Amino acid sequence: MYLKSIEVQGFKSFANKMKFQFHNGITGIVGPNGSGKSNVADAVRWVLGEQSAKQLRGANMQDVIFSGTENRKPLGFASVAITLDNSDHQLPTDYSEVTVTRRLYRSGESEYQINGTNCRLRDIQELFYDTGIGKEGYSIIGQGQIDKILSGKPEERRELFDEAAGIVKFKRRKLTTQKK
Ligand code: ATP
Ligand code: MG
User: Fold this and answer.
1) Homologous superfamily of 2-120 in CATH?
2) How far does residue 22's CA lie from ligand 1's centre (Å)?
3) CB under 6 Å to ligand 1: residues?
4) What would the pLDDT profile of 31-87 be if each residue is shown by its tens digit?
5) Site to substitute for ligand 1 among 35, 54, 60, most atoms within 8 A of C-beta
6) Where along the chain do its domains lie?
7) Residue 36's Cα: distance from chain center in Å?
8) CB of 40 within 8 A of CB of 28?
C-alpha cells in the first residue's frame, strides 16, 4: 500500500484545487519558509480525521479553510482527498484503490467519504486501524512527537506498539462489546 495522491482545495494556503502525485518510493517536499510544506502534512492528518484544531496549528477547525490573501477572497469550504494504492489489500476492503475525502464548510457542516460514498468518521478510523496510518498512527511523525514517545507514559507508548502489532481493532471491538 502506498500514497498515490493528495488533492486539496480551499485547504489552508491551497486556494486552488491542486493535486500532488506520488510514486512508490521516497518523495521530498521542499520550498521556502511559509510556502505550505507543513500544510501538506496537515492535510493528510486532517483527512484521516484529526479533530484537534491545535494539532493543525489553528485556533478552531474553520481555520483550515483558505482565509484569503490581499488579492484573493476567502473561500467557503476546504476539501482534501487522499488516494492510496491498495493492490496488496493491506486495507480491509476489496477496492484496489481507496480515496478518502473530507470536506468542511464555514457553516460547520462537514462530510467524509470513502471512494465517493458518504460515511462516518468512525468508518475511516476503522479502515485504518492497525495500519499505522490513522491519525493516531505512526505514519506521520510531527515535530515534538519523538520526544513525546520517548518521555511519554508507558500506557501511551503501549498504544504505538498495539498499532504496530495489529491488535487495536480487537481491543476496540472488545470495548464496544463490553459497553453493550
Ligand atoms: P516552514 O519552512 O517555515 O516550516 P512551511 O512551508 O511548512 O514553512 P506552512 O506552515 O505549511 O509553511 O505554511 C504556512 C502558510 O500557510 C502561512 O503563510 C499561512 O499564512 C498559510 N496559511 C495557513 N492557514 C491558512 C488559511 N486558512 N488560509 C490561507 N493561508 C493559510
Ligand atoms: Mg513547516
Assistant:
1) P-loop containing nucleotide triphosphate hydrolases (3.40.50.300)
2) 21
3) 12-13, 31, 33-39, 63, 65-67
4) 999 999 999 999 999 999 999 999 899 999 999 999 999 999 999 999 999 999 999
5) 35
6) 2-120
7) 16
8) no
